[in-house]
């Protein structure tokens, strides 16, 4: 289990790196074909990754999040479609929207999203944890049909609870409203209502964008047959995707029962839509909602037991799901996880969300980043002033630069006052870094770090002065060239003056040892699994 956890973390780190590559590179490519080719290696990686896991929860999570959703999202993104287009405002948003089954809620409708009180979700958690999982201890006394009903309820509740918690945490982290993944599917009054408006809505939207919509737009003038074929093709693709998902979980040859389940539902839903649109009898005498709800849920349950459930039951998937759920519960019980701590965490998250809502301001617009891609700097002024450690830059600007410039403006021109303010800021930063190095090394300052900032201060002042000359304004340096010179100058001077003191006092080795010790500590304390 410990190796599985390590692999799980490594996979998510690789996924974040891969999606970051797509975020920066793909939008810069002009043609759709080249953009598609640029994301294909990432898609292939995401399709292969689930094979390396042994637990069903890990395999299902990676297969669903990365293989099932991230792959079509990235393909649609390369074609300038889908939930990732237009490009999200920053990298964290892009990574979350690509890797998680979430979608930004652009026009929230409180009447729909908050139709049910919050205690309904708490009731579902209670049913799943306190009743459903405990009932499996007595399954030898339960009938087969009752167990099948429990399995169906298990799949639904575990999916909705886990996805809702992910949505809640990501919403708090990003500071934005997200669309729900489920909308009480047990209240569906038709197959169209069940699959289109209530069950696994993120997957429905992806299938609509990737399959249904292109088929409907294939011809300029679509007909009812095109609608029928688009619905049928969407369910067929969903069936094949579920067969691949089952292969990830079972490692067995597909039996195509799951595909037949979706083919049957696609045919019935297409017939249902055609019947509602073309038959005057249905339009004149609509079916009572209670009756249609009973027929819909009954049809989904019966066909699910007939075609969807046999394959996971044959290969023991439900047993493995149940055992892993019970194992996790025992694990948290052994770790003595206090419910008060959990509720306190939820309270803090709620307070943060309410404060954001009351202020009517997106939290991503309030909290500024600390770094802004410093490796893309095209000048020293750009590097130190706009990209590197921006909180420190803002503090030095307020504490040193602005006061020095105001004082100097009384006795000299504003240009010279600005240059002196810049130089004084770097001198102060150098002295502050010497103090920090003394705290860390307990060694007598050598002045090398202060000299590093003194040199950069002189060069930044010279750079700012040179930019004001007519020569530089008339013949500006190309961004690629200035970028290369800036990064090279920072690295060379840092290797010459900044790092020697760190190396002499073995700070790098001490940092790596402490990080390794910290990782081992958390792994032993938090990720301990009983043998």
From TrEMBL:
One annotated GO molecular function: O-acyltransferase activity
Domain Wax synthase per the UniProt entry, residue ranges: 179-263, 368-454
Subcellular location: Membrane
Keyword Iron listed: no
Keywords of the record: Acyltransferase, Lipid metabolism, Membrane, Transferase, Transmembrane, Transmembrane helix
Regions that span the bilayer: 7-26, 32-53, 60-79, 119-138, 150-174, 227-249, 255-275, 287-308, 416-440, 446-465, 477-499
Membrane topology: Multi-pass membrane protein
Protein name: (thale cress) hypothetical protein
């Amino acid at each position: 289990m410990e190796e599985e956890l390590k692999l799980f973390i490594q996979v998510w780190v690789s996924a974040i790196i891969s999606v970051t590559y797509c975020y920066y590179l793909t939008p810069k490519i002009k043609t759709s074909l080249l953009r598609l080719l640029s994301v294909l290696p990432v898609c292939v990686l995401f399709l292969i990754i689930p094979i390396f896991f042994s637990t069903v929860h890990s395999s299902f999570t990676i297969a669903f999040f990365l293989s099932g959703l991230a792959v079509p999202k990235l393909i649609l993104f390369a074609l300038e479609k889908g939930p990732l287009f237009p490009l999200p405002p920053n990298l964290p948003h892009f990574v979350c929207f690509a890797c998680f089954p979430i979608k930004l809620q652009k026009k929230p409708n409180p009447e729909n999203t908050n139709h049910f009180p919050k205690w309904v979700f708490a009731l579902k958690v209670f049913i799943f944890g306190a009743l459903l999982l405990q009932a499996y201890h007595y399954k030898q006394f339960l009938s087969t049909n009752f167990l099948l009903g429990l399995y169906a309820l298990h799949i639904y509740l575990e999916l909705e609870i886990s996805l809702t918690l992910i949505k809640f945490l990501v919403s708090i982290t990003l500071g934005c409203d997200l669309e729900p993944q489920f909308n009480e599917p047990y209240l569906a009054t038709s197959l169209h209502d069940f699959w289109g408006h209530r069950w696994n809505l993120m997957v429905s939207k992806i299938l609509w964008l990737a399959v249904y919509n292109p088929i409907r737009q294939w011809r300029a003038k679509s007909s009812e047959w095109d609608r029928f074929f688009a619905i049928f093709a969407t369910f067929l693709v969903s069936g094949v995707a579920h067969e691949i998902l089952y292969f990830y979980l079972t490692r067995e040859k597909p039996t195509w029962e799951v595909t037949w389940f979706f083919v049957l539902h696609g045919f019935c839903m297409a017939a249902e839509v055609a019947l509602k649109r073309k038959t005057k009898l249905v339009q004149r005498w609509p079916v009572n909602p209670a009756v249609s709800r009973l027929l819909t849920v009954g049809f989904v349950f019966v066909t699910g037991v007939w075609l969807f459930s046999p394959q996971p039951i044959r290969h023991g998937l439900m047993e493995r799901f149940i055992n892993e759920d019970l194992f996790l519960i025992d694990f948290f019980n052994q770790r003595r996880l206090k419910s008060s701590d959990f509720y306190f965490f939820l309270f803090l998250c709620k307070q943060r969300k309410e404060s954001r809502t009351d202020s009517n301001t997106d939290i991503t617009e309030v909290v500024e980043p600390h770094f802004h891609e410093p490796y893309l700097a095209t000048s020293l002024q750009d590097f130190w002033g706009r990209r590197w450690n921006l909180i420190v830059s803002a503090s030095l600007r307020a504490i040193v630069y602005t006061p020095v410039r105001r004082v100097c403006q009384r006795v000299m021109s504003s240009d010279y006052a600005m240059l002196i303010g810049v130089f004084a800021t770097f001198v102060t930063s150098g002295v502050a870094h010497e103090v920090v190095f003394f705290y860390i090394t307990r060694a007598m300052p050598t002045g090398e770090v202060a000299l590093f900032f003194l040199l950069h201060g002189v060069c930044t002042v010279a750079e700012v002065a040179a930019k004001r000359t007519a020569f530089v304004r008339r013949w500006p340096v190309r961004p690629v060239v200035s970028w290369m010179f800036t990064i090279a100058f920072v690295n060379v001077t840092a290797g010459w003056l900044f790092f020697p003191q760190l190396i002499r006092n073995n700070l790098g080795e001490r940092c790596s040892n402490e990080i390794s010790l910290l990782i081992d500590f958390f792994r032993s304390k938090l990720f301990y699994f009983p043998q």
